[in-house]
Protein: 2-amino-4-hydroxy-6-hydroxymethyldihydropteridine pyrophosphokinase
Amino acid sequence: MIQAYIGLGSNLENPIAQLDRAIETLKKHDSLYAFRVSSIYGSKPVGPQDQPDYINAVASFKTKLPPIALLDLLQSIEQKQRRIRERHWGPRTLDLDLLLYGSEEIQHPRLTVPHPYMLERGFVMCPLNDLAPDRLLANGKTVAEQLHQLDTNDLVFIKEV
Structure:
C-alpha cells in the first residue's frame, strides 16, 4: 500500500459542493483506504485575478493503484463532475492533483510527482499540514517547516470536513 496525497480545488459552480461531492466519491472508492481530508481553505487565485477566489483541501489515503491508474481515477471524477477549465491557471469547477505518491519521484508525460508547484503554494501546504505536519518532503524539510516559510496571509479557514 502506498500513502498518497491529493489536492482538491474549485472556484466555479458552488465550489464547496464540488469538493464535498468529490470527497464523497473518493471515500466510496474500493481501492482507497484510510481516507482522511483536511479542513477546507479559501485563497486568492494563482494567475489571472479576474476570477473568483478558490477553495482548497488535501486528502490522504492508502492505495494499491499505480500512479497513472490513480491519475486516471482523479481525472474521471473531474469529468463526472463536468470539469470546466477555461484557461491555464484560470477558473475551474474541480481540480484534483496528485501531490505525493509515497516517497516516489515520478516524471511521466502525464504526471510529475511530487507536484511541481506544491512547495510554493500555501493553499496546498496549509491543508497538507493539517494531515501530515511531520512528513518529510523532497527538499529535506517537513511540511510544517515548509509552510512556515510561505506567505499564507490570503488563506481563510472555510470549514472542517
